[in-house]
């Protein structure tokens, strides 16, 4: 959780679906820095935090040790300018390192940054975003358990949900799933 008024950060510790406790960690008073995703960027089986400074375009990862930030690392890349929007993080190439999922807002193409830890390797084209802007990105998860995170979308008008299934070759196919009541918002 992030308090958007003062920069405080909290983590809920869960046991399955049961809330255990809330833990406060180091606040970030510069509200231009926003958390845009989580993933294991250094293969230590800890969930790390992906940040973007919406003012400068800088990107960073907090490498975590449980609920404590171990260190922050800036991601060096020439590609992160204002036309790019971070959608989230996931392991899209099956190497057990989190990658960064991006939307090019000028042409609606979706890419991911293939990462080796916190080092940018290359930009990989995934697919064109749904042309209809009623489809909204909701998250990433390995829905088919093949070792590659898939991309979850939902339609804000008719309640349809869908996934872009990923495999060793990248984007594989779309799958339209069940529709949900529009009063519910999905996240993966």
Task: Give the tags.
single chain; 188 residues; mainly beta; 4-stranded antiparallel sheet; globular
Short description:
This protein is mostly beta strands and 188 residues long. The protein has strands at residues 9-15, 18-25, 33-39, 48-53, 59-65, 68-74, 84-90, 99-104, 109-116, 119-128, 135-141, 150-155, 161-167, 170-176.
Unreliable residue runs: none
- Mean pLDDT over the full residue set: 92
- Quickly give the structural class: mainly beta
Order of strands in the sheet with the most strands? 3-4-5-6
Helix content: under 10%
**Strand tally:** 14
Number of helices: 0
Shape: globular
Radius of gyration in whole Å, from Cα? 17 Å
Biggest sheet descriptor: 4 strands, antiparallel
End-to-end separation in angstroms reads 16 Å
Q: Give the topology string: H per helix, E per strand.
A: EEEEEEEEEEEEEE
**What percent of residues are in strands?**
over 45%
Describe this structure in words.
With 188 residues, the protein is mainly beta. The chain has a domain at 130-188. It is 0% helix and 53% strand. It has a 4-stranded antiparallel sheet with strand order 3-4-5-6, with no helix packed on it. A 4-stranded antiparallel sheet has the order 7-8-9-10, with no helix packed on it. The chain has a 4-stranded antiparallel sheet with strand order 11-12-13-14, with no helix packed on it.
SSE map:
Blueprint: E1 9-15, E2 18-25, E3 33-39, E4 48-53, E5 59-65, E6 68-74, E7 84-90, E8 99-104, E9 109-116, E10 119-128, E11 135-141, E12 150-155, E13 161-167, E14 170-176
Antiparallel strand pairs: 1-2, 3-4, 4-5, 5-6, 7-8, 8-9, 9-10, 11-12, 12-13, 13-14
């Amino acid at each position: 959780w992030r308090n958007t008024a003062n920069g405080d950060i909290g983590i809920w510790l869960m046991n399955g679906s049961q809330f255990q406790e809330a833990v406060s960690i180091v606040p970030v008073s510069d509200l231009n820095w926003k958390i845009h995703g989580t993933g294991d960027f250094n293969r230590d089986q800890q969930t790390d935090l992906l940040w973007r400074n919406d003012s400068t375009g800088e990107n960073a990862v907090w490498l975590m040790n449980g609920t404590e930030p171990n260190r922050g690392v800036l991601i060096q890349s020439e590609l992160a300018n204002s036309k790019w929007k971070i959608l989230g993080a996931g392991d899209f190439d099956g190497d057990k390192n989190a990658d960064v999922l991006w939307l090019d807002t000028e042409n609606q193409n979706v890419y991911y940054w293939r990462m080796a830890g916190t080092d940018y390797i290359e930009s990989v084209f995934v697919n064109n975003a749904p042309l209809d802007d009623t489809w909204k990105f909701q998250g990433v998860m390995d829905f088919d358990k093949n070792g590659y995170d898939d991309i979850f979308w939902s339609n804000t008008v008719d309640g349809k949900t869908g996934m872009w299934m990923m495999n060793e070759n990248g984007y594989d196919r779309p799958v339209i799933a069940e529709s949900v009541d529009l009063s519910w918002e999905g996240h993966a």
